[in-house]
Design goal:
The protein has one domain. It is 74% helix and 1% strand. It contains 20 helices and 2 strands. It is globular and about 60 Å long.
Length: 431
Amino acid sequence: MESESLGESKMTFVAILFGLTYVCLLLFQKHRWKIALASAALFVVLGYLPLGKVLPSIDFNVLMMIGGTMGLVSLFIDSGMPARMADLLICRTPDVRWAVVALSVFAGVISAFVDNVATVLMVAPVALAISKRLNISPVGPIIAVAVSSNLQGAATLVGDTTSILLGSYAGMDFLDFFWFMGHPGIFWVVEIGALLAAAVLFLLFRREKEKVDICDVKIVRDYLPSYMLLGTVVLLILASFIPNKPSITNGVICVTLCMVCAMIEALKNHDADRILKPVKEMDYETILLLAGLFVVIGGITEAGLVDAIAELFVKLGGDNIFVIYTIIVWASVLFSAFIDNIPYVATMLPVVQGMAATLGVEPYLLYFGLLVGATLGGNLTPIGASANITAIGILRKNGYEVSARQYARIGVPLSLAAVFSGYLIIWLLWA
């Protein structure tokens, strides 16, 4: 009894510390990386996460992907390609509202095949260039890019880390996301949600009717960074078919192509400083923020808080498959708005499988519900997904602060539209 009481007290304190961490992250956005690292240090010092489990709790694959892509994108920006893409997009849209919608759809298409964070790093420069040319704030367009990239990240096996987790656990390959066991795959569910989200985005920007009458297309100075980004996409897709590959494979791909591109650029321009440019352009505050959050999540997982949440689903659902499915989807939306969805999905997958076995049903309905809820729910808050954190970091780097209200104006309605449509379609297909 005494040990059980101590365990409950420990979990309560961990929940309070975790809650305070996220409240501070929302209130003091300029110091979020410091708050995350301080909270991570507290979890370790207080013994809630053993020192030997600190490094394993950090997803170095994600951090390497972010760092490598940031560096490669800096060369991509210098090449003039984002500015050219911005000009071409502007030439084909009648006003600002259509430009924002087109940009978000463009980001979503890329995100279906590239990590969400990488997509934001690639497309945000285009949004910045468009906003500069039209003399508007880039806050709305870049938030739209981040949200759209999160919405479509679950469409394919390589689009998001949560998809990779599901594919590995359920034994699904790249093509299974398009057609699986005689049914349309999760790809089509996500795309329908993305179309609804695009319609909602158009309504949100319906008053932005400033005419787009600029059509001066810039010249690309160097196509190598663009080819390297395309090569990154191809290699990430090919890597998805490799069985039992190292967990940092995607990160190694991004870092390696960044280094190769930087070295070739240095040789072509006879300028050794070009090798250091990608290193200087990395957003280290975002990387440190994510590293700290990984440790915090590791701490609450070690303390049993995530497991307690998972067990709650079983108690609330009973034997009703519809009730269980509904709880999984919408509870995942709620929790992933504040908890990183990677450890959450990793923890919930075996729980979902156990629930399906108990009910005597195939687990795929619950798997897909979990994926939709956990992946799309991160859009409800600016700290609910790595792509959102990255987008806000880019805006801050360019002198723009984003309030929670500014973010919620776009993130909440787009998320709810996409999740609700996915919730209904998955039930109709797999119930």
